[in-house]
């Protein structure tokens, strides 16, 4: 059971003041990409930077990076043990995410980072990360309907929760592509706090930086990532003067094209896990907004081959299956349904019943073959590879499914004697 609040994290970190400044990022979609862009650019510019995102991708500690490198497992376990002992000694009863947040923040102290790029776990106002006080800039990414059982049933209610990270005296960056209801709610909070706000406009990148406009004209950047890049650059321009007053941001912008965010529109070959050699598309889309982005990409990039798309899907329990998958899976497509396994450190996350997924997908008019594989992910992938032949294959519906596949692939590489870096 998730119970939001700041009292437990406050007690966990009461005796250890944070020694670094933060960039704090909230939103429904785009937080991870924005944090990746910021971490990469700060590190490139010589700033010692830590990054904390959630959930983890393959191992619990890979959600924490120092200078763009995943923190060493030994250090993570050492600091985590200290935090858990403190929790037990003081009788705090902190949640798994609160323990992880405290561990990340203590690691940032230990590693003497200058800046921590911190992604909100859920919501904002009562999220454990909102214990941050020395914040350089707050960022609000794209907001949509998600986690309604905790954050509210309307865009306005959810936006108010996410706007809870805004603080007096701290400038903020707002993704200007947000819905009017979101922008209006944010504007009310911004006026209430009298904070300086920058609204990003990805259709006019030169307003943010001439170098950003040049980048967009020379490389193929997806629309949602244009918005995320604009947010990152705007946040960096607000933060850098407080860190490196003489550093120019524009020369760093070309570095954006080198940043990869695993599990989001990721092209990857799955051999030696399976015999297929052609790359597949791996995407953790798990809500309506991210699924819409995935659907647009698939329609534009993959359906141009004029072959049906084959899907391997899973979803977390509680998701609206029809609204998640029906808009992106089309007539003639083939679908394998499966279930991800237990999520380390997140025991409350459960997979939806694959049979239920299959029944929902089968109602799509003109759908091709649909088959449920229960929790046998490898069997689902093998079937999907056979169905797709050399045609397009997409894995989607949950970042936890993506994680399981990447772990299976890592193990296959180890067994083949050719270990591969997954992240």
Please describe what this structure looks like.
48% of the residues are buried. The chain folds into 2 domains: 253 residues, 3-Layer(aba) Sandwich (UDP-N-acetylmuramoyl-L-alanine:D-glutamate ligase); 151 residues, Mur ligase, C-terminal domain (Protein-Tyrosine Phosphatase, Chain A, Alpha-Beta Complex). The chain has 423 residues and is of the alpha/beta class. The radius of gyration is 21 Å and the shape is globular. This is Dihydrofolate synthetase. Belongs to the folylpolyglutamate synthase family. It catalyses: 7,8-dihydropteroate + L-glutamate + ATP = 7,8-dihydrofolate + ADP + phosphate + H(+). It is an enzyme of class 6 (ligase).
Give a topology summary.
Elements: H1 7-12, E1 21-26, H2 31-44, E2 49-52, E3 64-66, E4 69-70, H3 73-90, H4 96-110, E5 115-119, E6 135-140, H5 148-151, H6 155-162, E7 172-174, H7 180-193, E8 197-199, H8 210-218, H9 223-243, E9 266-268, E10 280-282, H10 288-302, E11 310-313, H11 321-325, E12 334-337, H12 354-362, E13 370-372, H13 377-388, E14 393-396, H14 399-416
Parallel strand pairs: 1-5, 1-6, 2-5, 6-7, 7-8, 10-14, 11-12, 11-14, 12-13
Antiparallel strand pairs: 2-3, 3-4, 9-10
GO cellular component, one term: cytosol
Enzyme class: ligase
Keywords: ATP-binding, Ligase, Magnesium, Metal-binding, Nucleotide-binding, One-carbon metabolism
């Amino acid at each position: 059971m998730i119970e939001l609040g700041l009292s437990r994290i406050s007690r966990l970190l009461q005796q250890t003041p944070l020694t670094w400044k933060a960039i704090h990022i909230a939103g429904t979609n785009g937080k991870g990409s924005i944090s990746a862009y910021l971490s990469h650019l700060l590190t490139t510019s010589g700033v010692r930077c830590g990054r904390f995102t959630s959930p983890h991708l393959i191992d619990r500690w890979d959600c924490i990076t120092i200078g763009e490198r995943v923190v060493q497992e030994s250090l993570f376990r050492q600091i985590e043990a200290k935090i858990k002992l403190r929790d037990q000694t003081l009788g705090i009863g902190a949640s798994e995410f609160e323990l992880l947040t405290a561990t990340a923040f203590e690691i940032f102290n230990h590693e003497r980072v200058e800046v921590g790029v911190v992604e909100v776990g859920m919501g904002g106002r009562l999220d454990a990360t909102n214990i941050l006080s020395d914040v350089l800039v707050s960022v609000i990414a794209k907001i949509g309907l998600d986690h309604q059982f905790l954050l509210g049933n309307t865009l306005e209610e959810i936006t108010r929760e996410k706007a809870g990270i805004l603080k007096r005296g701290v400038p903020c960056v707002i993704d200007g592509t947000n819905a009017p209801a979101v922008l209006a709610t944010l504007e009310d909070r911004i006026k209430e706090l009298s904070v300086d706000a920058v609204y990003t406009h990805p259709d006019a990148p030169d307003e943010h930086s001439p170098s950003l406009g040049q980048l967009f004209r020379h490389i193929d950047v997806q629309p949602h990532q244009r918005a995320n890049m604009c947010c990152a650059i705007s946040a960096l321009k607000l933060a850098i003067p407080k860190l490196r007053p003489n550093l120019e941001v524009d020369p760093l912008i070309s570095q954006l094209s080198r940043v990869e965010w695993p599990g989001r529109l990721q092209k990857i070959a799955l051999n030696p896990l399976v015999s297929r050699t052609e790359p597949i598309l791996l995407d953790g889309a798990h809500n309506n907004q991210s699924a819409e982005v995935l659907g647009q990409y698939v329609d534009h990039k993959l359906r141009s081959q004029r072959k049906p798309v084959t899907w391997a899907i899973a979803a977390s329990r509680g998701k609206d299956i029809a609204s998640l998958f029906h808009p992106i899976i089309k007539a003639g497509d083939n679908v394998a349904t499966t279930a991800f396994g237990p999520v380390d450190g997140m025991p409350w996350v459960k997979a939806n019943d694959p049979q239920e997924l299959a029944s929902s997908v089968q109602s799509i008019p003109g759908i091709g073959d649909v088959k449920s594989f229960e929790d046998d992910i490898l069997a689902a992938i093998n079937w999907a590879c056979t169905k797709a032949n050399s045609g397009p294959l997409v894995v989607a519906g949950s970042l936890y499914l993506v994680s399981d596949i990447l772990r299976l692939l890592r193990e296959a590489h180890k067994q083949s004697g050719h270990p591969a870096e997954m992240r």
